[in-house]
Description:
Blueprint: E1 7-8, H1 10-23, H2 28-43, H3 54-62, E2 73-77, E3 81-85, H4 91-109, E4 111-119, H5 126-129, E5 137-143, E6 165-168, E7 180-181, H6 188-197, E8 206-208, E9 213-214, E10 223-225, H7 231-244, E11 269-277, H8 284-300, H9 315-327, E12 329-330, H10 333-346
Parallel strand pairs: 3-4
Antiparallel strand pairs: 1-12, 2-3, 4-11, 5-6, 5-11, 6-7, 8-9, 8-10
Helix pairs in contact: 1-2
Amino acid sequence: MPEIAPRVSSTALQAFISKCLEATGMPWADTQTVAALMTQADLMGQDAHGVFRLPMYTRRIRAGGINVTPKISRVQDRTATALVDGDNGLGHLVMYHATQLAMEKAEKSGVAWVGARHSNHAGPASLYAMMPLKKDMIGLYIAVGSANHLPPWGGTEMLLSTNPISVAVPAMNRPPIVPDMVTTVAAYGKVKTAAQRGETMPEGWMMDRSGAPLTDPARAAEGFLLPIGGPKGYGLSLIFGVLAGTLNGAAFGREVVDFNADSTSVTNTGHLVLALDIKAFADPDVFRTGIDAVWDEMKSSPRLPGVEEIRLPGERLHRVTAERSANGIPLPVPFRRQLAKLAAELEIDPL
Length: 351
């Protein structure tokens, strides 16, 4: 029988993450920002992008691969656009700064696009797409993934990453619509969590270099992820990489550093965030009520045989967030052992 994953409160988890980061030399105020965002990722059910990444982040910090005291600055700054340089800071800090800036600009200009370079892994895309919701705005986030796992369509050299995108649209009384997806059939973080749990992968996630299905996550290095929609997913990954990477002067293609395997090299990760003020187009309440109507129309539409429920993007996120806020965040026993080992290395109290 598999071990039951014990639960931890979001408050305790956030405090633990903050203490770990502070032990690496990160200023206390910055640890609060990062810990809150990482904990929110776990609350939303983004298990591959929350505390799961903490051992990797601390390893890179201690090896000199991440700057714990970055001077985040604006390289370019116009009315509705900006380019932020993250000074090799942790991606959560860089993208929190960039998203706040995008919202400030959008309040004045109606829409704002902020790019970022010299950043690092920042957690799930939906974290930043959802921030503008609080301002009656639509948010969009795209990033160059932190390791290449996808070849050009028909090729075998992994020159592209999963390159995630998320869009968040507010509703009035319904949950916001929040697609959060990568351009591959599965995110590589799901491969890693499958390996951690001793699970196999479904056929269609990965392929080896001979073209055969790859279902053992322990053999992931022998193959590559498959794009959504065949060549269409490849095209999306390519364009997202150009917009979030090349346009910002960030890494793309062979320049991308695999932060899973390399703890010392600067990754120069690129991102972009867009904030769109609904007031520039419509009354926010009218728009949000309209999204409720869209939500209800989709939910009430006829279903195929055997389908119990039609769900909208972000509906599971909303349900998981409510459940975990009430009952705690499940952490598998093997991973809790890893966190205990990390706490001992950092000389802090375990979770």
